[in-house]
Amino acid sequence: MTTIRQRRVGKGTEAAEDQPSEETNVKPDGKILPDPPGGKLWNILSIIVGGIVAISLGLLTSVYVATLHENDLWFSNIKEVEREISFRTECGLYYSYYKQMIQAASIQQGLHGLVYDNKTESVRTINILERMNVYQEVFLSILYRILPIQQYLEPVYFYIYTLFGLQAVYVIALFVTSWLLSGTWLSGLLAACWYITNRVDTTRVEFTIPLRENWALPFFAVQIAAITYLLRTHLQPAQERLTLMAVFIATFLFSLTWQFNQFMMLIQALALFILDCLDMLPTAKVTWLYIIQISGLLLVCVLQFFNSMILGSLLISFNVSVLIARTIQKNLKKGGLLNRLGKLILHVLLVLCLTLLINKFIKKILNLESDEHIFKFLKAKFGFGATRDFDANLYLCEEAFGLLPLNTFSRLSSTLLFYVYGFVLFLLTVAAVIVAFRNLSGSNQVSFKEKKEEYTVTLKPDAAYSLVHTVLFGCLALSTMRMKYLWTSHMCVFASFGLCSTEVWKLILKCLHLYTSQRTQVIKYSIPIITLLYISFKFWPGIMDELSELREFYDPDTVELMNWIKSNTPNTAVFAGSMQLLAGVKLCTGRTLTNHPHYEDKNLRERTKQIYQIYAKRSPGDVHGILRSFGTDYVILEDSICYERRHSRGCRLRDLLDVANGHIMDGLGENEPDLKPSSYPRFCEEIKKNLPSYTMHFTRVFQNKTFHIYKLAKHK
């Protein structure tokens, strides 16, 4: 089991700081007033300074997480096999394709090996580029081969430094988004500082480097920054076209690098849909964003050899349904309050029905079942009936897919982030309700516009989008802990924007009858600066201590296992075992696997459930027959799974298998009435007794404190 031990010694001018809000620069006839000469010079200087601060903070964050990774593992000093073992579970699987491309005789042979892969799933040839989002590994490996850096930089360092470099892009994008929303780069500085000081809850890149989200989230942040700029008013046509291009590129790269892209963008599409229905965003721009999402996803679909899971995504069905429904209901935004509410209800129902019909039709045509486990999981998670489905329960029992722990909020509150976020969220939600009500009930168009102007100062389109975005992704994070990183990073942006926003403080002071322009400006800058000083004094010593703490990677049992496999088994040997361990086996030894952690395939899920019968109550003959049907030569048993104590009764892997097989679970506790005792003992326990009924099928060839390897007899 892997442990860590103590190391032994041996963008545009509209966002410039101090720029007046967009409304104050516009004449009543819609023309933009020119900036005074002194103000223009100050804006340019502010942009330069803010840009330098943003880039500096991004680079510092990159160096910070890289140093933490080195200090935690002593990565520069450990052996190559230990470095590879440190890429745990699916991280190791993804990195193995980068290693495979690097070691291939040529780029063409490397690509051929990925398109016609017969080592990731035994007795099957699969297209890795279709099944998995590994184009980033392909691109990096090609880049490494053609650049003259092989003598100076090892492949593994080129890989991890690229990921750490993307953290710089991530922080810069968050910085720019907050700057665009508030109009001052001080807001971006605060957002970046909050991101760094809340690192435990905003990123996990330093210990899960190859994880798909670490590739994708920086591009998602860039996309949000571009959307924020796009939603500003009075953009020139050229600016709008360039921004739409930036949104498309960021959307495409985000979609290309993460298999869960469609679900994240579906939430984004829902945010756009809500705001469009409430007349809080320009319809034309929303339409472009729908089209960009569809086109970006379809381009990825082509690159992934027409991956059916993408074609059958809810995102494509939803966006197409919205566009169809909009053409059917052309007068959606006309009429009084009750009239518009009735139209909106019909519109929502029409979109919902069309989405379900289109999605069901596509899945029926394509015979698509790749994502059914996700919907089974969601159904069970939200209480729509209990399930004995093995795949759904596998997710339900993982902490990462559970509710967000309450201690998350105490950590976020210690930096003042959560307090400020809650304060800004409340204010802008109230403002949004007022604006939405006025938009829907404005029968007198002239007075509506006059009154609306008073409120849109505090809720411009970009701020409205940011509000709904953070609410929806907050709901996702609360329901599924693994998705908190999508919320907490934007939380930093949203809170810092609110604290540095002229409109927010103007609204507060007007409500308190204390408003003056000078007082607003003083508060707008003084409170963020005080917050930054508090964060610096409180957390700087802890960051320094963290950077000075030196540890060392230590996992001798897994190292011994991998070395034995490489030295004592043929290159063509097929290994069965847990998904997480087999990813490491492929990376460290290059042997063929029966199953792996990339779970987005129905056949693989069924195969994994069969392989896992090694931890169920089955006869040795049954287990041998199952394993041999997948071409297995060796099976690896792990004591940490066979005698698992990490999960409570009912969530241990052996319990999930027992319930799925209709058997009573081990230990004290209740069982469902229709479960029955098994006729056989637990395989992983009984095989260690070397009984004749087991030794005729399995021969132990390796063991240590954690792992046991058995060679399968070849008889039929």
TrEMBL record:
UniProt superkingdom: Eukaryota
Disordered: annotated span: 1-33
Major location (coarse): membrane
Pfam families in alphabetical order: Dpy19
A single GO molecular function term of this UniProt record: mannosyltransferase activity
UniProt xrefs under InterPro entries: Dpy-19/Dpy-19-like, Dpy19L3
Membrane-topology descriptor: Multi-pass membrane protein
Key words of the record: Glycosyltransferase, Membrane, Transferase, Transmembrane, Transmembrane helix
Transmembrane regions: 41-66, 215-231, 243-260, 266-284, 296-324, 344-362, 416-437, 463-481, 493-516, 522-541
Cross-referenced CDD domains: Dpy19L3 (cd20181)
Gene Ontology annotations for the cellular component aspect, listed alphabetically: nuclear inner membrane
Bias type Basic residues, positions: 1-10
Keyword Ribonucleoprotein: no
Compartment list: Membrane
Family: Belongs to the dpy-19 family.
Protein name: D19L3 mannosyltransferase
